[in-house]
Amino acid sequence: MPAASLPIVEVATNGNRQTLTINRPFAGLALHATLAVPGDKSISHRALMLGAIASGETRVRGLLLGEDPRSTALCLQAMGAEISGLNASEVVVRGVGVGNLQEPADVLDAGNSGTTLRLLLGLLASQSGCCFTVTGDRSLRSRPMSRVVMPLRAMGAQIWGRRGDTLAPLAIRGQVLQPLRYESPIASAQVKSCVLLAGLATEGKTTVVEPARSRDHTERMLRAFGAEVRVDLEAHSATVTGPTQLRGQTVVVPGDISSAAFWLVAGAIVPDSELLVTGVGVNPTRTGILEALALMGADVQLLNQREVAGEPVADVLVRTSQLHGCKLGGALIPRLIDEIPILAVAATAATGKTTIEDAAELRVKESDRLAVTASQLARLGARITELPDGLEIEGGAPLRGAEVDSFGDHRIAMSLAIAALLAKGTTTIGGAEAVAISYPEFIAQLQQACGM
Ligand code: S3P
C-alpha cells in the first residue's frame, strides 16, 4: 500500500489532556492486523474484589491494567488487601476474608469507575463496625447511586450522600444486614453484583431478580471462589446464601469484547479490511454486539472457541461487508449496553435506517452517551437523531473530518477514532486521554491496524 494512502494517527499531549488527530486525506485505507485486546474490565474488577475478600492468595492473569481497575485496586489496598504485580502479567492478591476489610484511613476514590463504586458499596455496607467515605471524579459524582443505595437500605444498610443520598460522595457505616429478595427495576449487573456481594456476609438467602439478563461474571466468579450461588435463567434471578467464606483462586481474564467491538466495527466498515481479534471473552451475556453485527449483515466469525477459567473465549475474525440498517431494542440492549456508541458508527456506514431503542441507561454512563454520540457523529456529517431512549441513524451520509470531543468518556473517544477512519480529511478528538480508562493500548493498536 502506498504511504500516501495511510492515515496519520498522532497524539498531542497538553498537561493531562490529549488530542488524537486522524488525518485521512486519501481513500484506499484498508485494515489488516491480528490484535489482542486487553483484559475484560468487568472481570478485572471482580477478580480484584473477590481476591481481596477471599482467604489466601488469588492470582490474576491478564488483568486489565487500565485506570478503572487501578481505582478498584487502590480502594482495596486501603482496606488491607495486599495487591502486588499491578504492572506485571500476573497480579497477586492476598485477601483478608469475607467481613474482614479494615476501616481505611482516608476517603476511598473510585475515580471514573461506576463498577468500582457500586460493587464496593455492597462490600462496605455489610462490613460491620467500620465507617467509609467513597467518592469519584466529576463524572462519577453525577451518576445515580440510589439504584444501589435503595436495595442496600432495604437490607438495613446505613448510607448517606449528597442530594438526598443519591450522589457520591457517600458515607457508609457498615452493619450486620438482613437478607433480601430484590426485584430490580433495571437490568444492571452493577446493581445485581452490589446486592449479591452484600449477601456474602449476610445470614440467609439474598436474591436479585432482573427484568432482563445482565452480565453474569459475578455469579460465575463467586461460584469459582466457593460460594453457593443459584441462578434461575428463566426468572432472571441470582441467589447467594450467606454467610460464606471464599477461597483464593487463579483467575484468567479473557480479552474484553467491549474493547474488541471497536475492531469488529472497524473491520466491517473500512473497505477491504480483515482483522483477527484473539482471546475475546464471548460470555453469552455480553455477545449482543455479535448478534447486532450479524443482523446488520457483517461478516464476523468465531474461531477456536474454548473455555478459560469458567468463561467462554474465542478468536474473532471480521472482514469488510456492506452493512444494512436494523432495529435494536428490548432484552438485547443489556447484552450490548457499552457497545451502542460504536454500533452507531457502524450504522453510519450501513444502507438504510438503524434504530436503537430501550437504551435510556446510556444517559447515565461516563457521559450522556445518547447526547454525545449524536452530537459528535453529527459533527462528522452523520445523519443521526437522538431519541429519548435511543438513537436513529440514517446510514450512507459520507463522513468528513471535524473537531470532536470525547466528553471524558473512553468509549466515545474510541468510537470517534473508528468513525474518523471513514471521514475524509482531518479529525481531531479532544479528551483522547480517556482511552486509558479501559484500553491504554488503543492508540498504539490503531496505528498498528493502519499499518503505521
Ligand atoms: C458493568 C455493568 C454495566 C456496564 C459497565 C460495567 C459491570 O453497567 O455498562 O460498563 O461490570 O457490572 P450497568 O450495571 O449500570 O448496566
Could you describe the 3D structure shown?
- With 452 residues, the protein is an alpha/beta fold.
- It has 2 domains: 3-38 and 254-449, Enolpyruvate transferase domain (UDP-n-acetylglucosamine1-carboxyvinyl-transferase, Chain, Alpha-beta prism); 41-252, UDP-n-acetylglucosamine1-carboxyvinyl-transferase, Chain (Alpha-beta prism).
- It contains 14 helices and 24 strands.
- It has helices spanning 41-53, 67-78, 114-125, 138-141, 146-154, 162-165, 189-200, 217-224, 257-269, 288-295, 340-348, 369-379, 410-420, 442-449; strands spanning 8-14, 17-24, 32-36, 57-61, 82-84, 90-94, 108-109, 131-135, 158-161, 167-173, 181-183, 204-209, 229-232, 237-242, 250-252, 274-281, 299-308, 311-319, 327-328, 353-356, 383-387, 390-394, 403-405, 425-430.
- The strands form 6 sheets. It has a 4-stranded mixed beta sheet with strand order 1-2-24-23, covered by helices on one side. The chain has a 4-stranded mixed beta sheet with strand order 3-16-18-17.
- It starts with 7 loop residues before the first strand and ends with a helix.
- Shikimate-3-phosphate binds next to helix 7.
